Amino acid sequence: MRLRATIRTLRVPALVLLGALGLSGCAEVRYLAQAAGGQLDLLRRARPLDDARQDPALSTETRRKLNLAAQVRAFAVAPPDQGGLGLPDHGSFRTYVDVGRPSVVWNVFSAPEFSVALDTSCFPVAGCVAYRGYFNEAQAQADAAARRAAGRDVVVGGVSAYSTLGYLKDPLLSTMLLYPDATLIRTVIHELSHPSVYVAGDTVFNESYATAVEEEGMRRWLAAHGTPALREADQLAQSRHTDFEALLLDARAQLEALYAQSGLTDDERRTRKAGVLQGVQTRYAALKASWGGYAGYDAFFARGINNASLGAVAAYAALVPDFEALLARVNGDIGAFITAARACGARPQAERAACLWGG
User: Looking at residues 137-164, what average pLDDT do you find?
Assistant: First the structure.
């Protein structure tokens, strides 16, 4: 899913948690312990959604959003001939957990000083992923501090939802309910799409696929169930997101070109890099003014713009147009789309983008 008002959409495919069982060494064992402990805590506290919705202590707004999430889930897994998307039903989002904190996980991204390529961590089963996820913010910040001390560009972002790819029955999380209805609808569809296609080690492919399903799912939801207010809110949010994403992807391209230049000293690279990053902040201020002062992206910029944050944006956006082209080629048939996406995912990484276009 594309980045929106915060880094809430940077998620941890829990194959990392499962794959971490094969790790060795003290640091890896500590990472595994917190990951497994956090996941088990969620499963332990999950209660049936129907029970949660009838809890008299639940606020009216929370109950309304849980009802909405349940409706979207039913829509996402219902067959197309019954008006749904026909996504595989792995039993997720039938339970609910009040997480008790603003994020369920905090993801740490890092990159070298002079590269927009994200550092990766590699695990059995999951392959290599471009972040590490922590259920405890202090542990995430400690990891980030160690990476900064080693000279890396680093960003830490809170996550509202993630998928265990069908290996576990993911609960709905209170963190998912903190956002507007349009975002909640998109998040439910996005997360439910992940189990249908997953390519170990290819975050861009996986997230771009899920975003394409999200976009099509939201289009169909709005056509079948949308109100004028919901359509307007989603359209406005998407317009802002497009502007935001274009700004950051342009800055990433500028830095990528800068780092590729030969003959520059490190001090020259640092000076020019600082100029590009300052330009992003200036352009964001102008963009924000054009939005009438909308401040939904302020938290993202407050974390600092650097190679890591720009690399994270690209990781979740690069192949979305390619997947949308594939979906158009199969005339919007989600089943055929999933089958074709799996086939492309089985190809060598260098061939996947061309495959999505029929190559």
Answer: 95
Q: What's the gap between Cα 85 and its chain centre?
A: 20
> Of how many residues is the chain composed?
359
Stretch 25-29: mean pLDDT: 69
Determine the pLDDT at residue 126: 64
Q: What is the C-alpha separation between 219 and 227, in angstroms, rounded?
A: 12
Report residue 107 as tokens.
């993801």
Burial 135-146 (b: 16+ CB within 10 A, else e): beeebbeebbee
Tokens of 309: 């944050």
What is the rounded distance in angstroms from the CA atom of residue 257 to the CA atom of residue 95? 47
Give the model's pLDDT for residue 317.
73
CB 159 within 8 A of CB 104: yes
Average pLDDT, integer, range 158-167: 90
pLDDT of residue 123: 73
By the 8 A CB rule, do 253 and 310 touch?
no
Phi, psi of 159 (to 5 degrees): -120, 135
Report whether 197 contacts 209 (CB < 8 A). yes
Give alpha helix (H) positions in the chain.
15-19, 26-45, 49-53, 60-77, 137-149, 181-193, 203-225, 228-260, 266-290, 298-302, 307-315, 320-329, 334-345, 349-356
Is the pLDDT at 316 greater than 80? The verdict is no
